[in-house]
Amino acid sequence: EPEVTQTPSHQVTQMGQEVILRCVPISNHLYFYWYRQILGQKVEFLVSFYNNEISEKSEIFDDQFSVERPDGSNFTLKIRSTKLEDSAMYFCATKTTVVSYNEQFFGPGTRLTVL
Amino acid sequence: RKEVEQDPGPFNVPEGATVAFNCTYSNSASQSFFWYRQDCRKEPKLLMSVYSSGNEDGRFTAQLNRASQYISLLIRDSKLSDSATYLCVVNTDTGRRALTFGSGTRLQVQP
Hints:
Helices cover 0% and strands 50% of the residues of chain A. By secondary structure, chain A is an all-beta fold. Chain B has no helices and 11 strands.
């Protein structure tokens, strides 16, 4: 069964450093999302991406964050200057069409720890 | 008011029990509804979509009440493997296409 993959599984970084989280979507999927989950809290939407541009972003997704699909396969989330409060699980999700009942498939997540 | 509200639990039930989870959502423009399951430190996985007429998948039954903005999940004959956090998820379908998650209800099935 096709699946979304994410690397690394765990990233430890110092405050102020840049991190890049990577996602490989399922091959025929067109819609991509990043979510985060702070430990013990709910899953929160960050950004959606379609046709090589951001479709929508939440208030969490400030200028520190950026996304791109540099090579047509990987979908990346960059955090420019990490803060302690960026420590969380970051999940990539992908979806084949815009139809709302169509399932979003989640990757296994990257655990980001900012020290 | 939270967009999607759930009782956090935990619900501790014996094997074989029937357990019900409830969820309310605040945005009347919400279009699609789901129950996801999340195991500890893992990604959310779709359990089932929730349709207006209600739907059943084996031991799991989901109901939607649009007038009351209320969603439910019933699990019959609980198994140890059902122990997880159950996430009520809504899509407002206003163009964002992103999912809005509740905080989840934790279920612990005991032998």
